[in-house]
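Work package 3, deliverable 3.1, input record:
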Amino acid sequence: MCRMCDSLGGTAEQPWYKNPKNFSNRMYKLREPGKGPQMAAGGNAEPDAGDQRASPFAQAVEAKANGDADTFNKIISDMNARASLRPGCQVVPLHEVLDVLDLGMPVAAMQCICRKETRACEECSLKEYTGLGLGTGMLKWERWPERYRGKVEFLSSKQAKEFVEYWDKKGFMHMLMQEGGDFIGGMCNCDYPDCLPIRQRIDYGLTAQLLKSEYVCFVDWEKCNGCGDCLGRCDFNALKYEATMEKAHIDQFQCFGCGLCETACPRNAIEYRDRKKISGLARVW
Amino acid sequence: MTQCYVAPIIEIDRERCTTPFACKKCLQICPTAVFGVRETRQVRLEETDKFAPGSFRLRVAYRDKCSGCNRCVDVCPESALTVRMPEEVLE
């Protein structure tokens, strides 16, 4: 089992994000008297690289850009050690996302702060929103939706499912996030390079904050005719066309089990297998 | 061990680059998405005006990914960007 299941009540049959306790009201933090609101993530401009106040990650990037591998590797391994003790994100395939949306009401569509930061995307209406807020963290905004930065739009369970299916078709994979505590706070629809957790894991080896899904995708070569419709959907460099076999090829160790290739395949040639039941992959998170 | 290569230095002239979130040309043209943009200051319950000079700040968020292709330099309407390799590497 992954560390999230270990600490958040997951079992071999039911991953942590299907445990209703993780959506419960008791996770909702009330502000302590006299304490002001916390600055939202992405609020303050990051100091320039080299600045003493630069975040550890900004210092790691700067070390890498200066060719200083020792400093870079040290900062990244420290960050991984700290992140492994904190809540994180996990990749979740579409069919499981649809189950989670029923557990996580209320559900609201909102802007993606990563895409805003990396590509200056402005998501101001339901047609443009790509993120979803879930569960107890949204109770406050359900009451005052106009006060949420960038606005939010609350969705019915059916609307939320159509929303996720729409972005899945477009080519965004899905991940569940914990927000500052033990409750499940959001579900992102993301791709490389604008998603910060994906990018930090793939480009910088920050492995602890974004976990792979409970699944690994396999290509059934009896069914695959090599049409290539799945190619280009993978954000994790796991999928290619294997010219020798004239079939799609998935690298099991690179695969995050997001299932974007599965939802694109017209012949149902890609299947999910439970990561925990494959001996060589059960510890690859 | 990750291999590290010395990357170009990217300089932003902030006198010229004042409304990066409204302009966003460099942010969207970069093949490796090197840049980032954030609000300099958030006022509670207020949306930030992207046209107000200085309300957003462009920064070089992933300099190690810069290939020095200069597409951002060419696209910048204010000529606010310079990209150069450190001299000690060129020697």
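The interface with chain A takes residues 1-7, 20-21, 24, 27-28, 32-33, 35-42, 44-45, 47, 50, 57, 59-66 of chain B (CB under 8 Å).
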